[in-house]
């Protein structure tokens, strides 16, 4: 499970394992740059670059998830992306988050011998 939030509805975080990340560094090929240059003349979405960006983000995400699994996590919270151009035409894409171990609230309560109750609305 992954989320940009810092909690997962219905689950209790039982252990935080720290930051996990996936880093990909990509460059544009000469042919891709020429093709994208032609697309810019027409205008609109430059699909060659869109597809490259989407694939790069997906690869960084998969690396992050793999890193989380390697250290024993079953979820990643606070997922974010960052990108930096290292040199012209070469970009680093970073996907990162916090690796955690979560349990379903019902299972967590059963193991601890507690029951979840909703607090009453405060009376003012």
Number of domains: 1
Q: Might you state the CATH topology name? A: Translation Initiation Factor IF3
Q: Main β-sheet: number of strands, strand sense, barrel status?
A: 3 strands, antiparallel
Q: Give the overall average pLDDT.
A: 83
Which structural class fits the helix and strand makeup?
Answer: alpha+beta
What's the CATH first level? Answer: Alpha Beta
Number of helices: 3
Cα-atom Rg, whole angstroms? Answer: 21 Å
List the helices and strands and how they pair.
Blueprint: E1 11-27, H1 30-42, H2 47-70, E2 75-87, E3 90-104, H3 105-112
Antiparallel strand pairs: 1-3, 2-3
Task: Give a written overview of the molecule.
This protein has 124 residues and is an alpha+beta fold. Helices cover 36% and strands 36% of the residues. The chain has a 3-stranded antiparallel sheet with strand order 1-3-2. A hairpin with a 2-residue loop joins strand 2 and strand 3 (90-104). It is elongated and about 60 Å long.
Entry keywords:
124 residues; alpha+beta; Translation Initiation Factor IF3; 3-stranded antiparallel beta sheet; 36% strand; elongated
Task: Briefly summarize what is shown.
With 124 residues, the chain is α+β, with helices and mostly antiparallel strands. Helices cover 36% and strands 36% of the residues. The chain has one domain (11-112): Hypothetical protein apc22750. Chain B (Translation Initiation Factor IF3).
């Amino acid at each position: 499970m992954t989320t940009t939030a810092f909690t997962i509805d219905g689950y209790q975080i039982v252990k935080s394992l720290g930051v996990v990340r996936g880093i990909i560094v990509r460059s544009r090929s000469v042919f891709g740059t020429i093709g994208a240059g032609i697309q810019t003349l027409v205008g609109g979405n430059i699909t060659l670059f869109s597809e490259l960006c989407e694939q790069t983000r997906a690869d960084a995400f998969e690396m992050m998830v793999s890193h989380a699994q390697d250290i024993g996590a079953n979820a990643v919270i606070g997922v974010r992306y960052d990108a930096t151009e290292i040199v012209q035409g070469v970009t680093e894409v970073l996907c990162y988050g916090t690796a955690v171990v979560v349990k379903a609230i019902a299972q967590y309560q059963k193991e601890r011998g507690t029951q979840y109750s909703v607090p009453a609305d405060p009376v003012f």
